[in-house]
Every structure is written in C-alpha cells, then in structure tokens.
C-alpha cells in the first residue's frame, strides 16, 4: 500500500506490513524494560514524544550532543541500554556507532527491541509510529 505520510505529505511511504498484535507485544516489552530502569536512546524529541504517547516513560535520552557524551550518560545510568534509532541510513549508522561506544563503556547495547519493532511494522522513522498505529489498528 502506498500512502502519504501525515508529517511529510510530499514523501510517499510504502507500508508492506503492520502487525498490530506483534507491535503491541513489542511496545509492552519496551514499556516493561523502561520501568525496570533501562535507558532508551532515540534520535530526537519527536521520537521521545512518540514513545511517551504509548505510555513509555523513564529514561529516554535523545541524541542532542556528541555520541560519546550520550553513551557516557547512558552508561552512568545502567549496565544495559536500549538503542532505538530510526531505520533510515543515518539511523543504522548511529545504532552501530552507539553499540560500539556502549561496548567500550562496558555496557550491553540492546538492539533486540529495535529489530523486533522493525519486524512488527515496516516503518522508517520512530516518530511516525503513533499515527501509523492509529491508522492500522482500526
């Protein structure tokens, strides 16, 4: 199905799948891990707001400074950190660099949620999750 993105009307988004049940399972798992104190690293404020719209609170860190500083801040908070960057080229590069920096800090980088979310819904940007969920959960 091809549709216009609500936030980016000129860009076409191709949605191959959106498994609402699997998506809910991943969000519930993420919500649980956040309540356990695991920090979540996202790219920006809109990504943080998207997670909060699903009731995911806790330590959501945004990449507003250098990756080194973000990795150090996350490492001070927990021995495991969830990386939830976008699925575009830039997001994949950031995820890889953050993984390496966190390993250097002696912290376990958790990319499982990122991979599970991608399997549940073929989305490119985290900030688009709330609007896509509303569209496909009807």
Please give a structural write-up:
The protein is α/β, with parallel strands linked by helices and 138 residues long. It has a single domain (2-136), classed as Dna Topoisomerase Vi A Subunit, Chain: A, domain 2. Helix content is 50%, strand content 14%. It contains six helices and six strands; from the N terminus they run ββαβαβαβαβαα. It has helices at 20-35, 45-53, 67-77, 89-104, 112-120, 129-136; strands at residues 2-4, 12-14, 40-42, 60-62, 80-83, 108-110. Strands 4-3-5-6 form a four-stranded parallel β-sheet. A two-stranded antiparallel ribbon has the order 1-2. Helix 1 (20-35) packs antiparallel against helix 5 (112-120) and helix 3 packs across helix 4 (89-104). The chain starts with a strand and ends with a helix. The model is unreliable at 1-5 (pLDDT under 50).
Structure annotation, total helices: 6
Rounded radius of gyration (Å): 15 Å
The level-1 CATH class = Alpha Beta
Strand content: 5-15%
The H-and-E topology, N to C, reads as EEHEHEHEHEHH
Termini Cα gap: 16 Å
Keyword list:
6 helices, Dna Topoisomerase Vi A Subunit, Chain: A, domain 2, 50% helix, disordered N terminus, two-stranded antiparallel ribbon, 6 strands, single chain, globular, 4-stranded parallel beta sheet, 138 residues, alpha/beta
């Amino acid at each position: 199905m091809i549709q216009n993105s609500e936030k980016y009307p000129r860009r076409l988004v191709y949605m191959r799948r959106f498994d609402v049940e699997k998506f809910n399972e991943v969000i519930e798992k993420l919500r649980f891990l956040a309540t356990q104190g695991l920090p979540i690293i996202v790219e920006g404020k809109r990504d943080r707001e998207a997670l909060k719209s699903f009731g995911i609170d806790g330590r959501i860190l945004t990449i507003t400074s250098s990756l080194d500083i973000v990795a150090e801040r996350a490492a001070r908070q927990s021995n495991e950190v969830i990386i939830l960057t976008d699925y575009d080229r830039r997001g994949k590069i950031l995820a890889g660099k953050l993984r390496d920096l966190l390993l250097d800090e002696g912290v376990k980088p958790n990319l499982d949620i990122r991979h599970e979310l991608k399997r549940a819904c073929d989305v490119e940007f985290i900030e688009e999750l709330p609007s896509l969920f509303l569209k496909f959960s009807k």
